[in-house]
Structure formats: C-alpha cells, structure tokens
Amino acid sequence: MASGGDVAGAAGLELAADVVHLDPESAVLEAMLRGWVRQQHTRFLNEEGTIKPRVFLVRRLVEFTNQYPWQWSPADGEAFIAHLRSPSRGRPIAMSTGRGYETALALFMEYLTDRRYGWVEQCLDQFGRAPEQIFHEDNRVAHVAEYEGRPGRRPLTYDEVQALFDAVDGRVERVRTRGRKGGA
Asked: What does the pLDDT look like over 23-52, one tens digit per residue?
C-alpha cells in the first residue's frame, strides 16, 4: 500500500494501491514527478515558466546519473552541475543558471524528503533506500557578488542613475541658457 498523507502530491494519492508495476522504479519516479507537479500547482506556480522546466531538469539528472532520486547523493548533484559548467560542453551554463538549477533540484528533494508526502517511507519499503537532500549550504554556489552576469549588462547603481540624471539636467540647463530654438 502506498504511504503518505492526503496532501496534494502525497505518495498515497499518486500511487495506485495493490498494483504491481512491471518497472517499479520508473513507476515511482513518474508518481513522484506527478506529485511534485500537483504540489506546485497548489502553490499557483506557472506551468510553462516554472513547473515544466523544473520537471525537465529532474529528468536530466536522472538521465545524467542513470539513477533514481532515492539513489542520488550530494556527489551526484555536484557532478551534474560540474558537467554543465564544463568548458568542454561548448556552452557551459552561467553561475546564476547553476544556482537556479541547484535550487530547483533542492526543492524537488525537499518535497521528496518531507514526511508529509510519504515518499521516504515509500522508497524505504520498496527499494530499501530513502531520498536525501543533494544540495546543502556547503555544496551550493555561494551568492557573494552583487551582480554575477557580464559586466556590460549589469544594472546601474543608485549613484550611477543619479549621476546620469544630474548630467541630463545640466545639459538641459545649458541649452536653455543659450536661448536657442528647442530650449524652451
């Protein structure tokens, strides 16, 4: 019998009771993903912009590790991000993208390890292993810089915006004092 409470996304609501699956690992993974989607829908998250990319990312990690979430360890998450950041990939991900990926995967693992959903018990009963958090404070990209993108694309600081407006105001005043057309 599937375990878990009656909260949206719980194992007990996602897995059919008394059904023997030919491929139980895949069946549980698909039920986990359905449950996570349901849980995110109850939080009114956007399907196209948030939920689908997150689910796709989890599927990428499953493919990369050739393992299921209850088999993952922090080393798997780290290897996945390192692979995506590797210059040998042709176009490595940016630091901010890596942080976003880590956050999305940490949220998935947080959902799985939350006892209210019953996935820990389900995995222990069926596979003898429970999912564990793969990203934590010590292995996540630290957010230390005010802006991490390309320098030419960073937003202006308050002082830079003020200097810009002061320069424009000064230019307007110079045009007005000349008494020329367009200065009124």
From this structure: 999 999 999 999 999 999 999 999 999 999
- How many Å from the N-terminal Cα to the C-terminal Cα in the chain? 81
Alpha carbons 133 and 105: distance in angstroms, whole number: 9
Amino acid found at 8: A
* pLDDT over 70 (residue 109): yes
- Please tell me the distance from the alpha carbon of residue 167 to that of residue 155, in angstroms, as a whole number: 18
Instruction: Write out the two tokens for 20.
Output: 């023997």
Sign of the Cα torsion 16, 104, 112, 69 reads positive
11 within 8 A of 4, measured Cβ to Cβ: yes
What is the rounded distance in angstroms from the CA atom of residue 76 to the CA atom of residue 65?
Answer: 7
Q: What is the DSSP annotation of 64-97? A: HHTS-GGG--HHHHHHHHHHHH-GGGSSPPPHHH
**DSSP label at residue 14:** H
* CA-closest candidate to residue 15, choices 29, 33, 2, 34: 2
Of 18, 26, 116, 19, the C-alpha closest to 70 is 26
pTM of the model: 0.80
Alpha carbons 114 and 112: distance in angstroms, whole number: 6
Which structure tokens are listed for 23?
Answer: 């491929």
Q: How many angstroms separate the CA atoms of 172 and 174, rounded?
A: 5
Virtual torsion, Cα 104, 129, 41, 27, nearest 10 deg: 120
